[in-house]
Amino acid sequence: MENLENEVWEDIEEFKGVYQVSNLGRVKSLDKYVKNRSGIDSTKIVGKILSQKTSKFGYKSAGLCVKQKVSWRLIHRLVAIAFLPNPLNLSDVNHVDGIKSNNFVENLEWLSKGDNQRHAYKLGLKNQDGTKNPKAKLNDEQVLEIRRTYKEGNLSQRKIGEIYNVSRALIGYIVRNQIWNNINIK
């Protein structure tokens, strides 16, 4: 962990005066005074560093409570909003090193949605080849069979497409190894 002596805190805009976020990706509540039921005396509640939970996708978030309602906020977005200028009004906050739990300001940058996706593919964080693609209409066995059938030369790409209820173009991509290139005939 980075040296806490270099930690800088900024108000979370949406929760000004209640919560702050640091350049190291920590969130804290601020000290507050709460009046008792009579409304005469008040008690000081000391602020604290909030615990964070990790989503199934690896992102850290913190629950911020105002008027007994908890709002969960992604830490990387809180850090970026507080510390990184965004003059182009870009939508996505990218983790430069690809580690979603590394919310140090130096590891974050604003990107467009497309640039963020390209970065994820470049780092290998996203791989949607073959059955990993949610839009896949074929499985690995079918792709192998398509390649074998086409190699035998008995059927055209159009006819094979009709058999598997996919386009001739998709069959062309498969037989030229432009897609599903992780599946090969042995």
Structure in words:
The chain has 186 residues and is of the alpha+beta class. The protein folds into two domains: 4-122, Homing Intron 3 (I-Ppo) Encoded Endonuclease, Chain A, CATH 3.90.75.20; 130-175, no CATH class. Helices cover 26% and strands 22% of the residues. It contains five helices and ten strands. The strands form four sheets. Strands 1-2-3 form a three-stranded antiparallel β-sheet, with helices on one face. A three-stranded antiparallel β-sheet has the order 6-7-8. Strand 7 and strand 8 form a beta hairpin. Helix 4 (157-164) crosses helix 5. The longest helix has 13 residues, at 140-152. It is elongated. 16% of the residues are buried.
SSE order: EEEEEEEEHEEHHHH
Strand order of the largest sheet: 1-2-3
Report the β-strand fraction as a percent range. 15-25%
Number of domains: 2
What shape does the CA trace take?
A: elongated
Arithmetic mean pLDDT: 90
Specify the helix fraction band: 25-40%
Which architecture name of the largest domain does CATH use?
A: Alpha-Beta Complex
Return the CATH class of the largest domain.
Alpha Beta
| Largest sheet descriptor | 3 strands, antiparallel
- SS class: alpha+beta
Radius of gyration (CA) equals: 26 Å
| Gap from first CA to last CA | 49 Å
DSSP strand tally? 10
According to CATH, what is the topology of the largest domain? Homing Intron 3 (I-Ppo) Encoded Endonuclease, Chain A
> Any low-confidence stretches, pLDDT <50, length ≥5?
none
Helical stretch tally = 5
